[in-house]
């Protein structure tokens, strides 16, 4: 359940300076913004997502989910031989009971067939899976996204912090809200998760960025693109959405849609590198050609002449993209902007 963006007034939550969340963000955010990703070793990740309207019994939903995982894993093997699928994201409410009208009646447990089936599939394809569900945990029911690791174990659970309230204040038929934005340490890098209406609150995006997230998964019932694109740009991380309709998209750290499917069902499989640099236009850069001339196929990039900006990465495990940039006397976009602002500050003082 997620409010539609049209015909509604969006209310953006910005933490007040005195709140615990705001203090945590301020403490975790270094002066001058978030740290560069350019000097860490290359972190190639093959990500899959989908548009899928998953309905029916729990058994039918599990069949749909595992079938889509199989398709994505085969496609990853074809496109990226020797690497394979690393992560797949599914839409909000992928697994739940349809027989009841309350969250309690819709909830499923990870004990039994749900956890066993999804864990077995993750283990079979040796990939991480994010599967949203109405989840029962002892006396708690939440709108949750369960993260399974490559061995089929539950590596973490994100519980939607901002469920939608009806006119009586009931949250999505009776779920309990989550209270935190955990970052999951996967073998390919730091992963964050938000669910649908969470995207309307800056608090979540900010907290994930402050905690070092490089990739945000966004399972949703709403196929929005403008908001996740803006947050990917603002925080310099990748965002991967999965929805039941319209589109599923992958947004790069300058806010562009770099992969998208509008088929229902439809699957995207895309390799990205979580160790990247963002460079703005400069005469020396030559829209990336200067790096290619110097390093050949050891460097990769996706440059937009329309945006005058590109995302750059290394294809050489022994040399970071940061080292390549410095070799040519280039600077990343954010430090370059800070350098220019410092020069302007000096003149303003005169």
Give a quick summary of the entry.
With 350 residues, this protein is an alpha/beta fold. The protein has helices at 20-28, 58-79, 103-106, 113-125, 202-210, 226-235, 289-295, 321-327, 333-349; strands at 44-51, 87-89, 128-137, 140-148, 154-159, 183-186, 189-193, 215-219, 238-242, 248-251, 257-261, 266-273, 276-280, 299-304, 309-314. Helix 1 (20-28) packs parallel to helix 5 and helix 2 packs parallel to helix 4.
Q: What are its keywords?
A:
6-stranded mixed sheet; 9 helices; alpha/beta; 28% helix; disordered N terminus; 350 residues; 15 strands
N-to-C span: 57 Å
Number of strands: 15
| Mean pLDDT across every amino acid position | 91
Structural class: alpha/beta
Largest sheet: 6 strands, mixed
How would you write the strand order of the largest sheet?
5-4-3-2-1-12
SSE order: HEHEHHEEEEEHEHEEEEEHEEHH
Rounded to the nearest angstrom, the radius of gyration is: 21 Å
Helix content: 25-40%
Q: Proportion of β residues?
A: 25-35%
Number of helices: 9
Provide the low-confidence segments as ranges. Answer: 1-32
Tell me, what's the shape?
globular
Question: What can you tell me about this protein's structure?
Answer:
The chain is α/β, with parallel strands linked by helices and about 350 residues long. The protein has helices spanning about 20-30, 60-80, 105, 115-125, 200-210, 225-235, 290-295, 320-325, 335-350, and strands at about 45-50, 85-90, 130-135, 140-150, 155-160, 185, 190-195, 215-220, 240, 250, 255-260, 265-275, 275-280, 300-305, 310-315. The strands form 3 sheets. Strands 5-4-3-2-1-12 form a 6-stranded mixed β-sheet.
């Amino acid at each position: 359940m997620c409010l539609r963006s049209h015909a509604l007034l969006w209310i953006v939550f910005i933490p007040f300076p005195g709140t615990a969340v705001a203090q945590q963000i301020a403490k975790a955010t270094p002066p001058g913004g978030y740290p560069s990703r350019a000097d860490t070793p290359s972190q190639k990740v093959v990500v899959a997502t989908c548009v899928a309207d998953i309905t029916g019994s729990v058994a039918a939903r599990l069949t749909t989910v595992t079938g889509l995982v199989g398709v994505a894993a085969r496609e990853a093997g074809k496109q990226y031989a020797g690497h394979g699928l690393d992560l797949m994201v599914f839409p909000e409410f992928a697994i739940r009971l349809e027989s009841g009208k309350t969250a309690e009646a819709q909830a499923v447990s990870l004990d039994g067939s749900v956890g066993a089936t999804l864990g077995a599939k993750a283990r079979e394809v040796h990939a991480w899976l994010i599967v949203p569900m109405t989840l029962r945990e002892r006396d708690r029911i939440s709108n949750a996204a369960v993260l399974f690791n490559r061995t089929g174990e539950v590596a973490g659970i994100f519980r939607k912090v901002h469920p939608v309230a009806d006119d009586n204040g009931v949250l999505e038929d009776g779920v309990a809200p989550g209270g935190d934005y955990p970052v999951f340490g996967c073998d390919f890098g730091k992963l964050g998760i938000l669910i649908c209406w969470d995207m309307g609150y800056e608090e979540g995006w900010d907290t994930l960025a402050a905690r070092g997230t490089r990739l945000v998964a966004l399972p949703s019932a709403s196929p929005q693109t403008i908001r996740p694109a803006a947050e990917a740009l603002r925080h310099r991380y990748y965002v991967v959405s999965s929805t039941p309709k319209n589109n599923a998209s992958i947004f790069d750290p300058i806010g562009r849609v770099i992969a998208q499917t509008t088929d229902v069902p439809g699957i995207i499989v895309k390799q990205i590198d979580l160790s990247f640099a963002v460079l703005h236009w400069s005469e020396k850069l030559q829209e990336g050609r200067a790096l290619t001339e110097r390093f050949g196929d050891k460097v990769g990039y996706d440059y937009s002449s329309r945006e005058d900006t590109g995302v750059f990465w290394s294809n050489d495990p022994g040399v970071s993209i940061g080292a390549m940039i410095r070799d040519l006397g280039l600077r990343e976009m954010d430090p370059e902007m800070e350098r220019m602002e410092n020069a302007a500050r000096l003149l303003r003082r005169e």
